[in-house]
Design brief:
- The chain is mainly β and 401 residues long.
- Helix content is 8%, strand content 43%.
- Helix 1 runs parallel beside helix 2.
- The N terminus is likely disordered.
Length: 401
């Protein structure tokens, strides 16, 4: 019976990594990254974004089109969103709203806000997709339209961009949430303070039963200062990500996650939420002192967060996580990012999970050896690999984001 459960979980998990033929998934709102797990094309796109105006005023309607620039190319999937230009105080926030009368396309609610993304609803061949973008009620400054276009299951054009300047003569309204700057981490963690001035969760490399810091597969330290908590994290791996999750149980789902990447040109610290067995990136709020670094084959990051941070669930309702009053199971996960992006893909190994809930207001040291895979789990991984290969070779005509 246990083997049946393992396989059921295996297949349920597999379903979460496949594409979505009915339109872009809510989890891609801030990443624009379709989960086809193929290398994305970032230069020489045969598709572009066409706008009806060169500038916009608050509340103005702008016609937006995804068009092919080469008659020999059509596309089957797409998604478009609008942000402030890179380098502003908040280039994460989704701006304005979309509308459309085309029933082969749809509008997507993102981070609890309706009509923030425009995408396909059916995966038919097309040469153009049209919508209307209504600018925000205040002048947000120069903005950028960003698109991902799926030409076929294995040919995806990522990072298609077009800027729209704000009309002159109208003062710019600053964003309510200022995204803190990200810097290069100067001081690496002092793991000798574990159990003294800070708590730590240390996860050994496979084959080892203990570790003390940078000899770990993954490690995190935490320290409380009033209603703030400062974390330092490290994991083995080059050009990879490291993530910490806070959960009410030992299963993935309904978890708050903070992800670090330190790849040059793709450094980030991301606030995310796991509704189920996938990650839904959120706006970076309630965090400060963000820094990452990649050195000696390891990823490092540090950040400070408020004790209480809300995540946004798929239905738009808030999901509070309060480290100042509650204890949580701690997850550590690591893996690869999508080529040319800071988007985490499925973790390489099973995440390290604390034995019992952790009170982050106390100074303790938690260490756990990597669990051995059961025969059923090993078989599950093999079957998953076979199914992924089979699906990706047979669903080439079911293209989507």
């Amino acid at each position: 019976m246990r083997n049946i459960v393992v396989f059921a979980v295996c297949f349920a998990t597999l379903g979460k990594v496949l594409a979505f033929p009915d339109g872009p998934h809510i989890s891609t709102c801030l990443t624009m990254y379709p989960k086809h797990y193929v290398d994305l094309k970032t230069t020489g796109s045969p598709f572009s974004i066409s706008l009806s105006n060169d500038t916009y005023s608050p509340g103005q309607n702008i016609t937006v089109q995804i068009v092919t620039t080469n008659s020999s190319h059509t596309f089957r999937g797409f998604q478009v969103a609008v942000h402030r230009v890179l380098g502003s105080n908040n280039s994460q926030e989704l701006l304005g709203t979309f509308s459309t009368n085309d029933n082969t396309t749809q509008l997507v609610t993102c981070v609890g806000e309706p009509k923030k993304m425009f995408g396909h609803a059916v995966n038919i061949n097309r040469t153009v997709a049209t919508a209307t973008w209504t600018a925000p009620a205040q002048n947000a400054g120069d903005v950028e339209f960003q698109a991902t276009v799926v030409e076929s299951f294995s040919v995806i054009w990522y990072g298609i961009k077009t800027k729209l300047r704000a009309a002159p003569g109208i003062s710019v309204t600053q964003p309510q949430n200022i995204v803190p700057p990200l810097t290069i981490q100067q001081n690496l963690p002092d793991w000798g303070e574990c159990g003294k001035s800070k708590g730590c969760f240390l996860h050994p490399l496979p084959g080892n039963t203990r570790c003390v810091g940078d000899d770990c597969q993954a490690a995190v330290s935490y320290r409380q200062n009033g209603d703030l908590f400062t974390f330092e994290m490290s994991a083995a791996g080059q050009d990879s990500y490291l993530a910490i999750g806070f959960s009410d149980d030992e299963l993935m789902g309904d978890d708050q996650v903070i992800v670090c990447t330190a790849i040059p040109e793709h450094q980030s610290i991301q606030l995310s939420y796991n509704p189920e067995k996938y990650t839904y990136r959120q706006y970076t709020m309630g965090m400060s002192n963000l820094a990452t670094r990649q050195v000696n084959g390891r990823v490092y990051c540090t950040f400070t967060r408020r004790a209480e941070l809300n995540s946004t669930k798929n239905d738009g309702s808030p999901r509070p996580f309060d480290l100042g009053t509650n204890s949580y199971f701690i997850f550590l996960a690591w893996g690869n990012v999508g080529t040319g992006t800071d988007v985490m893909t499925k973790h390489i190994d099973s995440p390290a999970v604390s034995v019992g809930k952790v009170n982050l207001r106390t100074v303790t040291v938690i260490s756990k050896a990597p669990p051995a895979l059961s025969p059923a789990s090993s078989c599950c991984l093999l079957v998953s690999s076979i199914i992924i290969i089979f699906v990706m070779s047979t669903l080439q005509k079911s293209f989507s984001l």
